[in-house]
């Protein structure tokens, strides 16, 4: 691997490019498509998206994937190098955000399934920020981002690179109202596992206060200032 040519992309990418003799095509892709910040077209694209897929890993490299959705523009572009999106109270696990606290590398994949059938990768360095702190920094953030639910946290991403996901295998999906009153469907919490016994879970805390103060600097979490 020491003989591989230097250039963009990972060592693994360049190893496979050398083995499969795709280096020239890859070089053209890097040169034309991979941008160090969001272009005007990318900013417009993100403003119209209602969903995004997430990739994170903890400090040991253990991976997690996630999905977020909301009204168009729920992922807010603050400028060509910065975007942010809200997080809400959920099951309390904080799997993806916990990974970000340990390892700030975050990958986003936006896909337009309905119109242009194109995707956008955005990779960067992320930080988890308390809602009040993020609004102090950016007062213009939307307040009604998901049916009047109040965000508990925000994920704040500094863009390192952004590039196209080609349309070849993106299926066409038609938006439709979500059906109500489905029968014979378990609750989400019981869908893949046996129903849990009823019990009161104590100790739930404000999501913005989960980490001891001494860990805030070492673990990349910015709590609300009180």
Task: Walk me through this protein's architecture.
With about 230 residues, this protein is an alpha+beta fold. It has a domain at about 35-175: Electron Transport, Fmn-binding Protein, Chain A (Pnp Oxidase, Chain A). It has 5 helices and 8 strands; from the N terminus they run H-H-H-E-E-E-E-H-E-E-H-E-E. Strands 1, 2, 3, 4, 5, 6, 7 and 8 form an 8-stranded mixed beta sheet that branches. The longest helix is centred in the first third of the chain and has 11 residues, at about 25-35. The model is unreliable at about 200-215 (pLDDT under 50).
Count of discrete alpha- or pi-helical segments spanning 4 or more residues: 5
CATH superfamily of the domain at 36-173: Electron Transport, Fmn-binding Protein, Chain A
Low-confidence stretches: 202-215
Tell me, rounded to a whole number, the average pLDDT.
87
Quote the CATH topology of the domain at 36-173: Pnp Oxidase, Chain A
Radius of gyration, CA atoms, in whole angstroms: 20 Å
What percent of residues adopt helix (DSSP H or I)?
A: 10-25%
What's the story with the biggest beta sheet? 8 strands, mixed
Summarize the structure.
This protein is α+β, with helices and mostly antiparallel strands and 226 residues long. The protein contains 5 helices and 8 strands; from the N terminus they run αααββββαββαββ.
What key attributes describe this structure?
226 residues; alpha+beta; Pnp Oxidase, Chain A; 27% strand; 8-stranded mixed beta sheet
């Amino acid at each position: 691997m020491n003989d591989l040519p230097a250039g963009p992309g990972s060592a693994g990418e360049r190893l496979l490019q050398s083995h499969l003799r795709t280096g020239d095509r890859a070089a053209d892709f890097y040169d034309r498509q991979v941008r160090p910040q969001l272009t005007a077209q990318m900013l417009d694209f993100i403003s119209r998206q209602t969903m995004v897929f997430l990739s994170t890993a903890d400090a040991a490299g253990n991976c997690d994937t996630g999905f977020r959705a909301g009204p168009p523009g729920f992922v807010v572009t603050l400028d060509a190098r910065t975007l942010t999106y809200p997080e809400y109270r959920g099951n309390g696990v904080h799997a993806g955000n916990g990974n970000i606290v340990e390892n700030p590398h975050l990958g986003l994949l936006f896909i337009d399934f309905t119109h242009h059938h194109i995707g956008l990768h955005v990779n960067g360095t992320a930080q988890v920020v308390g809602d009040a702190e993020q609004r102090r920094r950016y007062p213009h953030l939307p307040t009604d981002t998901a049916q009047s639910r109040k965000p508990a946290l925000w994920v704040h991403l500094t863009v390192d690179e952004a590039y196209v996901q080609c349309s070849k295998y993106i299926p066409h999906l038609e938006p439709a109202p979500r059906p109500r009153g489905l029968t014979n469907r378990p609750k989400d919490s019981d869908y893949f596992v046996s129903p849990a016994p009823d019990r009161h879970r104590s100790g739930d805390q404000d999501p913005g206060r989960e980490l001891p103060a001494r860990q805030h600097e070492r673990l990349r979490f910015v709590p609300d200032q009180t």
